[in-house]
Every structure is written in C-alpha cells, then in structure tokens.
Amino acid sequence: MPRIRNKELRKFEKSLPIALLRAREATTRLFKPFIENHDLTMPQWRVLRALAEADALDAKTLAERCVILPPSLTRIFRSLTLRGLIAQVECNDARRHMVRLTDNGRALFEEVVQESEPSYLQLADAFGADRLDTLLDLLNDLRNTVQTMGDTDDQAPPLRKVAGGR
Asked: What is the CATH classification number for the domain harbouring 103?
C-alpha cells in the first residue's frame, strides 16, 4: 500500500472521527444537564435508557448497546441498584446477570424524558426531523459497515479491552 504524505491527508475538519466526536460533544452538552439534574452520569443514563425499552437485559447485551466496558457496567449496576432504580432478575442461567428497571427507575426515566423532550424537539426542528432520521440511519449503517470491515481485517489493531489496558 502506498504511503500517504501529510499534504494528501484530508483536512482536519473533514476527519470522520473528529466530526463524530464534535457532534457527540455538542449533542451531549444539549442533554447532559437533564441527566445531571437527577444525579446520574451519562453511562448510567444509557443503561436506564436501554432498560426502558426492554423487560430485562443481560449484562453482555447492555454493555454492547450502551458502549460500556464490563468493569464500568458492574459499578453502574451497583450504583443504580443502591438507588433502587434497577433490580436483578432471577435467571435459570447463573452465568447471566439480568437486570430490569424498577418502578422508581421507570418513573425517573419518564421524568428525564419529559424534561428533555422539548430540547429534542427543538433540535429536530432546527436540524430537520427528516434529516435527523436520515442521519441516525446513516450512522447505524456506518457502524455496521465498520464492524463488518473489522470482522475481515486481520491487520486491524485490537480494540482496547480496559481503560489503560495492557
């Protein structure tokens, strides 16, 4: 493969990882105050958000859906359980850790949604609801494409397993 020289690199503003990071930071700033007003972290909110759409989920599924490393998810489970927002579900397979929202967890979820929905609608109005739907579809397609590429590319570096991993 030919070596790319600096002058041939795309401009900083056209770097996909940078553009995605900037968009993530901007949208996080829009919604983070609603989350923090309820003494939640963004990762904790992602867990509540995922559980709100399911009766119960196992730890592996939650880690994947919420993009949270398993050690962090364990701490999040502990914190949300102590606050009475999630509860463990009995499971026949002892290797699976299943959790669900409690009534308090669902009530908190609904409260945050009600508070943040006007901002979401404002964003959809400013950006365009159709464009926002298209963007979400494209981002999902991009993720799926990159994951597929990773499945066949033996030369790609492995993903970091833990923060500061070895």
From this structure: 1.10.10.10
